[in-house]
């Protein structure tokens, strides 16, 4: 029997989730899942190239956090596992898919690919191939918000930044340096660690002296919380509280989401290091199935309504694929375009 670190079930009697929010969360998680499944299909059919890191299993983290924020106003900073964060932040599936095909219509004009999604329109600060690279960038976004508000006295700036990264990345120096600065300056930022137990083939407990990452917040006098990353209701609740704290000028939060990736590290990974038992344990906690059951149980939606959403989202994905495939390649004459700001 595997012994897994999980949290007690959320007491749903304490939760009041309205139908509108629930539908947003469900739809966003399904969008993420179907998008990634389509990527896997395209990759294995030889139509998509390069490194592709999928997010299956972790959807509750992206949807729960980002849907508690203001779309296009707040900032989202991702990693190389960035497709679903981009979708939750409002980047159209067409633009994300086209980017993965290296097309001119992609959100990074086809120059970035899977690990470098970017959208100024949706305040997506980027996907980053180097681990921990996004943390100082997110810190900078949070700093400029606070600087404009408090030093330049512009009340229009009250944005919150969400910075996502993995358990393995939390052992890197940027994590500690940026936590210190964020706490010192009370920056409006959420550090969201997606603890999926593995950093490629390195088990989390083998790589860190204190596996309970949220506890690392305390040495910086920061709020640290652990949350069930397979439960979108729990994620959304924690995110709503952290966003309110950040927006009120009360500073950052370190959120450790206990989650799991259902596929290998990347689509090139044969995924032979994790035991079948462990994979089965987490597969049984599928966040989408769990939330679908929650919604029907609490009469937030019927099974038929959920099926209709699934069908509609599949059409969005099919449309995104057709768009990506029929879009033009970047013009070789534009090779030097977008290297520097105009
Ligand atoms: C600075 C740097 N060092 C090493 C790597 C190689 N690398 C790519 S992913 C990864 C593991 C990251 O694991 P984690 O932070 O847990 O994120 P996950 O892949 O689980 O989402 C490493 C070491 C890298 N990309 N950048
Ligand atoms: Mg990890």
Helices and strands, with pairings:
Elements: H1 19-44, H2 59-66, E1 75-77, H3 83-88, H4 93-100, E2 124-126, H5 134-150, E3 161-166, H6 173-184, E4 189-195, E5 198-199, E6 202-203, H7 204-207, E7 223-228, H8 232-247, E8 253-258, H9 276-283, H10 287-297, H11 303-326
Parallel strand pairs: 1-2, 1-3, 3-4, 4-8, 7-8
Antiparallel strand pairs: 5-6
The protein binds thiamine diphosphate and magnesium ion.
Magnesium ion binds at residues 166-168, 196, 198-199.
Short key terms for the protein model shown above:
Rossmann fold; two-stranded antiparallel ribbon; 10% strand; binds magnesium ion; alpha/beta
Plain-language structure description:
With 342 residues, the protein is of the alpha/beta class. The chain has a single domain, classed as 3-Layer(aba) Sandwich (Rossmann fold), CATH 3.40.50.970. 41% of the residues lie in helices and 10% in strands. It has helices at residues 19-44, 59-66, 83-88, 93-100, 134-150, 173-184, 204-207, 232-247, 276-283, 287-297, 303-326, and strands spanning 75-77, 124-126, 161-166, 189-195, 198-199, 202-203, 223-228, 253-258. The strands form 2 sheets. A 6-stranded parallel sheet has the order 2-1-3-4-8-7, sandwiched between helices. Strands 5-6 form a two-stranded antiparallel ribbon. A hairpin with a 2-residue loop joins strand 5 and strand 6 (202-203). The chain is globular and about 50 Å long. It starts with 18 loop residues before the first helix and ends in a 16-residue tail after the last helix. The relative contact order is 0.17. The model has no long low-confidence stretch (mean pLDDT 96).
